[in-house]
Amino acid sequence: MSTTPRLALVTCAELPDLDDEDAPLIPALAERGVTAESVVWDDPAVDWSRYDLTVIRSAWDYAARREEFVAWAGSVPRLVNPPNVVRWNSDKHYLQALEDHGLPVVQTTWLEPDRGYDKRALHNRFPAREDFVIKPAISSGSLDAGRYTATDADSRRYAIEHAKRLLGEGRSVMVQRYLPEVDSHGEIALVFFHGTYSHATRKAAMLTTEEVEAERPREEVMEAYHATPEEIAAGQQALAFARARIPGRSISSRPLAYARVDLVPTNGKSVVMELELIEPSLFASLGRGALDRFADSLVAELRMGPDSNNIDLA
């Protein structure tokens, strides 16, 4: 590491100065003797070798160019979180891998574009009674997601049209049971730095049956939340499952510098909605001391050097 380490905070062209939640990282790292700056991931003029560490933050346009983004991640000398994590976590099929190994995840039916579903086949793959959600397997936020009512004929018709459009674009589709606890309790987001619990937030329900297929990600409404010991344990279990199953990583790998686990308490257990390991909003402003913990985790990453398990298998 150089005398004055340099750190790149990766963003997208739409947010060249970072998201408001991440911008305070720059002065926080400066207080720790690290020069940090925001850098757009697909800027061809950037020399990534100039940085001792590159940290993905608000690169929220990657979903539409996922393969390009994965290739870029594999070209960066020292990336946090690393390239093999980017490849695995950028396609939500990882939920199937976790479910196959016994982790409680939201019930999902997968529709693949090469199957040639007609309207009847799609209809038969939707739930018969409860609300459900349709969204692409590669997406950012709630973009291209819609909530539908199984017992309403018009709603099912809209759902079929939504699924056919996504499949016609060559995109894998997720059909997920909508958990009513999202409306009554909200989604819980647990944030961890190097495997240690930091803080939690609660997100209000974002999808309604009156609004489907948003053209832009919906704004998240967050509040600070006091997680229960059971919820924290569920988050740690999810990360342990992922740690052992991401290609190129193992239980001997050190925990990721940052991670977010989104879950919903239902029927006495915590069901995992998503693991956010690439560029999650960490809502440091809603956790006392969270910004300092995040900055400290990045300084620790600089000092520890590369993890031998952080390899790209592309």
TrEMBL record:
Q: Which InterPro entries does the record associate with it?
A: DcsG_Biosynth_Enzyme (IPR053191)
Which organism was this protein described from?
Occultella aeris
> What gene is behind this protein?
dcsG
Q: Quick check: keyword Transcription regulation in the entry?
A: no
Q: Name one GO molecular function term.
A: ligase activity
- Write down the superkingdom of origin: Bacteria
Q: What is this protein called?
A: Cycloserine biosynthesis protein DcsG
Its organism's taxonomic lineage begins at:
Bacteria, Bacillati, Actinomycetota, Actinomycetes, Micrococcales
Keyword tRNA-binding among record annotations: no
Q: Which UniProt keywords apply?
A: Ligase
Q: What is its EC number?
A: 6.3.3.5
